[in-house]
Design a protein that fits this description.
The protein has six helices and five strands, in the order βββββαααααα. By secondary structure, the protein is α+β, with helices and mostly antiparallel strands. It has a five-stranded antiparallel beta sheet, with no helix packed on it. β1 and β2 form a beta hairpin.
Length: 242
């Protein structure tokens, strides 16, 4: 990069919803020597103390970038390690973005007729997925199935029986089979500490969103269409304005 040329970097922009060119606005770095008394678990396997009792240096770097398209700012932080204060080699340890990148994240949907308790549970399932807490996500999906059964008045028997009873509300046996799969996944998460895979969790949430839409939104949207149509007909029957 020539002198005076602004540094650029491609970063996913939360506003543009795509990978865009970002322009560096400012960068700040500082170093911190690591003494023997500090907890070195973060650096285990990265360095070994030398015979001259010189300690490694932790380097913090903060960079502020602005999207070249919409100008939304993003703070990028990085944590690196040098063997000592004179070492030019930097080993990367950690890093991240603020705000967190929305790439690949699930945006929670709005369900008008969903009761408050199920609404909170659904949102926490989405948060668990976005934060890679896939064990909690699987347990939450199972709890959401139980909550839907209870909300529909199906309370007798174990959860397997209650899921089967949902067929009276659903148009397809395939949805029942999918719900049983989520029930098994929730059992494995709760009793065997076995989480869902990332792609499985994403598909499970998508199916649950379709189910919530069927149970709690389609009737609401249909009633709004009917009321609007009734209002339009009443205006027509009134005749033209005088």
């Amino acid at each position: 990069m020539s002198e005076g040329e602004q540094e650029t970097k491609r970063i996913f922009c939360n506003s543009c919803k795509s990978l865009t060119k970002h322009l560096l606005q400012v960068r700040h770095s500082f170093r911190q020597e690591i003494c023997e008394s500090q907890d070195d678990q973060l650096f285990e396997g990265v360095y070994e103390p030398d015979k001259e009792d010189t300690f490694p240096v932790m380097e913090h770097t903060y960079s502020l970038w602005a999207c070249a398209g919409c100008a939304e700012p993003t703070l990028v932080w990085q944590l690196g390690l040098r063997g000592n204060q004179y070492d030019d080699e930097l080993t990367g340890l950690q890093g991240g973005y603020f705000p967190a990148r929305a790439e690949g994240l699930i945006q929670p949907k709005q369900f008008q007729k969903l009761n408050d308790r199920l609404k909170v549970l659904y949102r926490e399932i989405v948060i668990s997925y976005n934060e890679n807490c896939l064990l909690l996500c699987a347990i939450g999906l199972r709890a959401l199935i139980e909550g839907i059964c209870a909300d529909k008045g199906i309370t007798d028997g174990n959860l397997e029986h209650r899921v089967d009873e949902l067929i009276k509300f659903l148009p397809s046996i395939n949805l029942i089979e999918a719900l049983h799969a989520f029930r098994f996944a929730g059992n494995d998460a709760a009793h065997r500490l076995q989480p869902l895979a990332k792609d499985e969790a994403k598909s499970a949430i998508a199916i649950m969103e379709d189910l919530l839409n069927f149970f709690y939104d389609l009737d609401y949207k249909a009633s709004r269409v009917r009321s609007k149509r009734a209002g339009f007909k009443s205006v027509q029957s009134a005749g033209p304005l005088q």
